[in-house]
Design brief:
SGNH_hydro_sf (chains A, B, C, D, E, F, G, H); hydrolase activity (chains A, B, C, D, E, F, G, H); SGNH/GDSL hydrolase family protein (chains A, B, C, D, E, F, G, H); homooctamer
């Protein structure tokens, strides 16, 4: 298990991360972590590793792109000084190109996306005692020739390149969902192919926890 | 893994099971399984074993005792004809003795509790293709000399005796929580020592899934 | 223009037709026709052909399949005795197979779908002074190899076969959307690929109105 | 078709234009364009001319007069720099003289109305790549001797004079409604003779679209 | 003053009478009489003639026609056995012909209107110790050539004929409003020309009170 | 009739005046004048004297004392520059001494009350083209020996003295109510002996209108 | 202390007793006893005499008269078989005569009041193991010549006569309030002179508890 | 009785004190004192000692620790200049250590707690004409070996030491509850062992009132 006693684990991202978390804190009792994968991760950590006392914080905000993350990076990431940071961003960067095609000012193109994410990684990684985990954005579409899926895959590749270049942990959420989608039609997991059910969130959760060495069978 | 392709897995119980599930169905998309351990079990099954297509149904109702379960057994258990049945009941049977001491008609004493549960088990077990799982009631109190904890332990022992007598699967939720409570003070898991946080529900979830042979590391 | 002065034009279907119409009447002022294609059809008829005084009635209900239509046929179609009847049904018949795969009792298979629709057509057509229009169900997915799109196409073919056999008017909504989807990504028209924006509804509206000989340029 | 690929088409006006649009943006998905003629125009453009990708923006605000438009002209018209601008204003300028006769500070008299509108036109027209469309205010009253109808007609004439003087496109909404009112009593279209039903809005929509060369029968 | 000590004065009608009265009683404190002319009449009676203790009851219901009154006559008029009865009905009988022209089943034609009202009068008048007051329906439109105003005037004439034939008190509300409309444009009194402001209701109130001999200047 | 064509008549006071009026304007359609005596006065003026076009404005605010009036005098009285001003204040000045006896900072004693009111009168009267009407505060208690009634009477006397000294119109609301209370028990008019029913408000209305020469029987 | 271990103490009455209690049970945790004197009595009993385990039940219902009590006596008093019964009724029997003077069917005159109360007492007293306590109705008015106070005193005398005749405990709530009203003006305790503040309820509470021998200073 | 005529008695604390009091004032009618012990104290004072006119003020705020009290001391204690001050604080100082163990910045350790409380006492005591009452924090847990109970007892001891050192009145709420808990299981008084029912609040109330010499039996 890579997470150590007393460490702070902060997640930042968009609506997939947010899931109605308490704002602005993003931590505490009574559902403060929201109803998505962050809450599932916390539940599994507190249930299996209660002795570690990992402090989980959720800083996701609905609709955000990497451009929005940059604007609140100081407040929401640097100032809380986490030991571990997990970033999953990019779905809205891509989606707006497809659902609001006439509003280019809301589109974050690949170049800006990659440069901004890279900047955030380089600024932050040295400050982390634990580690930096990058999770790819995803799209619950099995047809790889689909236009939006293709674009999402490009953004996902950018994330992987940054992870490799800066030696970050990488979680390929698209790959994890692809396995699940072999058995389940996308509409079972998400009517809009973006916002997963609890079963979809658990796929993210499990992919993340495998990356940090979580052991389900720990006594 | 003991659950087989296409089987129906039905949970019945009180508020710990209910957790704001859709009524009366207790299944479907959009949070129909509620926000407790039943939803977590489903999320893990659909995420790790999507090929099995397990049908999870939640028939918990807030505040119910075994007396209430009996009254709706035909409608909520026999008629839906599940393959697997999971029963967790007894917390309110005990709790009312302690929070409403002047209202004896709301107390389900041990004798009635055990006889009723046994009757439900004997009537139902032969109809199940899969299995019958009994989960003990629990109380998030570490002091074994506490009056309500002592009573709850007696009810838990009755569940175990029935499980043994009729060869049911048993999940000792109290034992599972006891491990977690070695590290966490009860107020972290539940302000009222009864209704757990997501982290508490996950302890039930994991205890149940171990019993049915769930493999987190399945490829 | 095939619609004649004083005729009653009744639409029946699912949520695409319903769109928050007034219930149970389905007609009147103040948005009683809902916010979908039925309201657009009415708006165009009253604007371009006010002298005809066409009476438009909306009997769509969210989530309905052809099985539900049959159950309310007497009340909602026979009793109001329309001159023209327009049926668009089948999306939920198919969708439930893909978003609730474990609940087969909610799936209306092709055979039942076709037989039921045929029965409704044969019973009703003789009673209509005007005409009977069948509109195919649709799915806003451009990949014809997509599982749900393939199934939807099969149901659409069944509608066309019935239309041909009984000499009904046919509106191929899928074909109409396919044209629009050459230019617009599905997410622009409908986040869930089923419930269209106003721009999507207008595509149904125009396809329907062309079928009944509506003339936009009428003086 | 006068509208060209990628152009921005901005509507400004009062409650007839507003119709519960998203504020302050006035564009986007999920009903952001409101429920009136602007939404209908957009629906017809995206349905018939999806390849043009026209960007429609709604800047109507309930209760506004030309005096209010002037106050927000910089923010709501100049700054968004549309290619096409459509102005329909004047109903409240007149109406307040009739429903609040004792509050003269809320009345915009004809002289101020015409001078202000002319000023807005002269300032803006040079900035438009596409065109400037003036739509007359209207009153759903068939009696031309009615006091408020007479005043409204005077304001409508002012709009036409400005359109002619500055070579703008003109849409005579009163004339369009007059045709419809030959068949329908005003109360069918609008209980208050001002806020039209969907069928009334469609009359505005069709009058506007004819002006810009929209072709309903385009393949 | 024709009203005598301790008499019950019951008003029945449509939305002009209803005005959000308490249902089903239609009397009592805390605004139980609604916010329209019935409340004003009561306020003036209790203020100027408190010693009479007149009991005022409001049985108006929104949207009702004379056909609806007949259906509830036994319950709402005969059973409460008033001393005085005031009927104002007919606006919806006429209005539906103009705002819902395609729904003839909602139109109460003049013949049915007159016969029904006459039947109600003949049945009830003998039971009244005080008197029966008929108030004409009205339309806040000054143009006597307006189609709906013309129809309303015909219905008003029918009321007057019945009043004369059966020797009832008559209140010509249309005539009273005509005076007020010489000075005020209809939109000042009612945006829809039907539902008056407090100032419009007071015109009904004063017309009624004059009929029963109310003396404002009573010491 | 002392009110002249086109004059503005402004009422200021506490909750008896306020009655849920539109804020901050205090005038307009759709119930902007509230539901109390101000609305009744306006209704009677517009109904009987529509040709005068009197502009009625309501500036009452719940809970206010004369101290509060002074604080907003510039904004709510001087700036709107009425022709006629009507002041009814003092109930809360007295009431707080009886319902919150331990909070002396909320009590406005007689001396402060009289001096403040006098100051407001002297500042304002010269600016009024029409007239200044002072209405006494009142208490719906018939027992003149009641402590609060006695205090209220003292405040009422102060109002009368100021009216006499500065030659203002005076409306003795207490006297008007005393007549009504000979017949009706206080609880019929107001459960708290302060906030009157519509019948109570009408007593204020009639007392005021008599003062300004209103003629109910005007043709 | 007259209340004995394990006894059930049931209160029945009107809104003074009700105070938003849980319905229909009238007992339990979480404010089920309402916010009035019943809750205060319970709080003092459970705080000072926790060893007695007195079961307190609240069966008050807003607006009820003795006529209403009779109608629900079997359900709300006989069936729950209390050991002690406390009745406080009569305020509405009197009040309706004063706030709704024109509705005599809502007035319960003294004769009916006394006979009905006497009937309830004679039927019930033999069934009570503990005792029967009658509490007089009251009116927070210090002027004994006040009409409603006089009537209330008559009803109170009737209660005392019944108490004496049948040897019941009597609580003179009016007398208790009279002491408090020597120091506090009625408006401090109750704006409507009927529904007391917490301080007023405590006066009832203390008067009741003195009657049953409660000892505040018990160790 | 130590409280004297006209004195102001101010309570400050956390949610046990707050109980939904009016904010920011914390005094007045209509439940402004909340629903907890402060309201009970006031009710008993106004009921038994109405002639004293004690002014009770509630400045409790949910969730506050002694650190929060210090931050608002000037505004909420010094500025209102009470004669008597009652402080009950510390529950959240302790609780956060047990329910949010991973958020140390929310824990107020014993040293800070004691020093801060001592500072507040030394600053304030000289300004009080009446007296300063310290109430210990409490935990409704009977097991003295329970971790949180042990910590709470330490904080309680600190309060007692300060009380002794500075000669304040002391109320040992834990001791008072311990008596009640001999008979009642904690869940009867408070599901979370912290927020008492009305019966629990009364135990605080009685303990406080005994300290200031309140006499229940005063005539």
């Amino acid at each position: 298990m890579k997470l150590e006693k007393g460490q702070k684990l902060l997640f930042i991202g968009d609506s997939i991360t947010d899931c109605d978390r308490a704002k602005p804190e993003g931590e505490g009792n009574f559902g403060a972590l929201g109803t998505g994968y962050v809450s599932q991760v916390d539940a599994l950590l507190q249930s299996v590793y209660p002795e570690l006392g990992i402090r989980v914080v959720n800083k996701g905000i609905n609709g955000h792109t990497v451009r929005n993350l940059k604007a609140r990076w100081e407040t929401d990431v640097i100032k809380p000084s986490p030991d571990w940071l997990v970033i999953m961003i990019g779905i809205n960067d891509v989606w707006r190109q497809y659902d609001l095609p006439t509003q280019p000012e809301k589109h974050v193109q690949l170049k800006e996306y990659k440069e901004t994410l890279e900047e955030l990684v380089t600024v932050t990684k040295p400050k982390l005692n634990g580690g930096l985990v990058l999770m790819t954005p995803f799209y619950l579409e099995t047809n790889e020739a689909d236009a939006m899926r293709k674009t999402m895959d490009e953004y996902g590749r950018a994330v992987k390149e940054i992870a490799e270049k800066y030696n970050c942990q990488i979680v390929d959420t698209q790959a994890a969902f692809n396995e699940q989608l072999k058995e389940l039609y996308p509409a079972t997991l998400a009517w809009d192919r973006v916002h997963p059910s609890a079963a979809g969130h658990m796929t993210i959760t499990r992919a993340f926890l495998k990356t940090v060495g979580f052991d389900w069978n720990k006594a």
